[in-house]
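hi!! sorry for the late reply, been swamped w classes. u asked for the two structures so here they r. pasted raw, havent cleaned anything up. first the sequence of the first protein and right below it the tokens
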Amino acid sequence: MGIPIPEPYFNMNQLAKAIEPYLPVELERKIFELAFNPDDPVTNGRMILVARRTRSWLRPMIYRVFSLHSYRRFPKLAICPDEVNIEEIIGYAEHLIIDTAQHTTAEAAVLIEICPNIQNLAVWGSHKISELFDTISGLRHLRRLSGTFHTLTREQLMAPMFSSLTHFELLFPRRDWPFDALRSFTQLTHFIIYGEGKLSWDQMPFIISFCNSLQALIICTSHRDLPEESLHVLDAEPRLVVFEYSMSNADDWIRGAHGQVDIWWYADKFVFARKKHYFRSNEYRKSTISSDFNWLEHLTEEGKRWYLSLV
């Protein structure tokens, strides 16, 4: 008579049932998505390993933003480990920033072309946008675009892809840039002019008049104090805000791509506060706005209550 073998505590069906999630799947997914932190790849990697379902939830979030910028590079496509399927992750990419320090214009064209789901594109540096025009035009989901556009003609600027943009950043425009082409940007609500040195303040009302749906025009400048001729323009147009260069950089772009506070958020809040007359006086507008702007110092009591509800 053999030695009796004790029954296991669980058979396989019981074991499988025991490790099923206790929470509704929708709630469990929401918890993992809230726990996702784009600045903490180690923790994100651990969460992916929890279960097959968490991997399917988090991988699109991890690879949603492609930063092929010299300052911060992710993912490093040339040295991806074997377990990373490049063809899979490029399908997740919705935001792409790329500069000339690391990639030629031809390489940039290839990278843009293999990421068909891009909604938000920044092409910085000396890339000739005219050489990328056909490639960018193929992005059917594009809604945000940043770059220099010196080499595009007025006819190109009136192409269908620009009529779908909601956010547009124009870097260092020349005085003769064809701003009247903005009439074809029919969905444009937010517009940044980065580097206004060659423009006059008297041009700003005309630029705004070309954009029927505009909610905010942001001027990014290197000047700390604003010239006297800018003040009457600012007083007449609450949608116009002036920020320091540092408010729009690679860090800010990446934060915005991950749904965090960025320059567009600040602009919306400034425009809202101006329209609601939440500022105690116009003193704040004599200087450009930076990230250390002291809101509470300039707001009315009602404005302070509004601002504190945001932070």
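now the second protein. again sequence first, tokens right under
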Amino acid sequence: MTSKRPNSAAVVAEADDLLIEILARLPVKPLLKFKCVSKRWLSLISNPQLSFSHSQFHRGLKPSPTAILINDFYYSTPDFRIIPLDPSATQKVELSLDFLNFPRISILQSCNGLLLLSSSFLVSPSEMFLPDYGRSVHRSSSVVTEDDRGIAYLLCNPTTRQFKKLSFPSPLKEKMRIPYPLLNYQHRVVFVCFAFDPKRSPYYKIIVMIKLNKSFVEIYIYSSETDTWTSRTTDVTDLCMDIEFSPIGFHNGFYCNGAIHWYRKVGHPSAVYFDLDNEIFKKMALPPELDVWYFGESDGHLYVIGGLVDLFLPLDYVVLEMAADYSEWFVRYHINLQSMREESSELSWKVCEVLSIICAKDEKESVVVVLVDGVVMSYKVSDGTSKRIFDLEWKSLFVACTQDHTNPYQYVETIHCF
């Protein structure tokens, strides 16, 4: 009597490694739906190894951002505006942070599908006295002890609707504490940033910088791989970032190729980056004679977009890319917005801002996203054609253009789970 051979489907279903390799080839949204198949599939899809395998497989496919997010300080809800990059797409961008039980959430950073968020200043529901700080102070049921009072920092994956409240070691927590109700005192926190690169690792790092005095700062780094914090004191005198009086320039840091980067707009324009592997700061030279309108990254490359310094509203821009070894900037594109202006003559063009550059897998589809008088438009670098993709209301636009904390943030889908 011959034994019955198991079919191939049964073999695959029982082999976790093989099943992970198959699931890693699926797009994000269908993959997440398969969590409902069984507890075992839920566990597999939530495994960091699948997240890493998924990123490795889709690396060559070069997934592009589907939307740009902008903090919205004008409306009470939502806490950010969603700008879909392809309004004609059959699958609309559905994004919400309604699963977070924290008021007045602001985006601090976006990195490969994850968002770093901060809340308003949280106090106990029984708090009798609330100073007149508008929406910056909120009673919250999450405040149970004195340690809970203050600003909450969250790491969030809006695609999977998961989040993790960051916990800091006691020495750092004490240094981050804000005396209440003295919320406008000189804050010691220069920045809170994170690094997540699923093409390199399924793990992430949290970086917090505390100013000690004019010359020295303390850097705290958390690794999710080891679940540990480390710290070191660093001399930043040569960076000339005026951290003793104002940490201007350390807002809106972004991750690119193993480092966190910042651009300082106030005073003499300058840029620095923090090398995560060596845990050191380094200066970055900016192109001379260029009025920088945008400093950011796309697909792992650093870009600067700007015009001549003597033009108030330039229509001629140059897009520069930084060499991989940080040795020089080289010209990637020349763009001229004159045709865009002629096609949108009903706009005054009194406000013009470069929001982002999106480098596509097909270079002919790469675009620069521009905001003009509340209208978001894309400019295709290959042929100079443009199209409207979103309309912002003027009041929201006005606030966004006058706040230093409202940089645009690229959004991509990821299956990473905490």
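hope this helps!! also noticed smth abt the second:
The longest strand covers residues 114-123.
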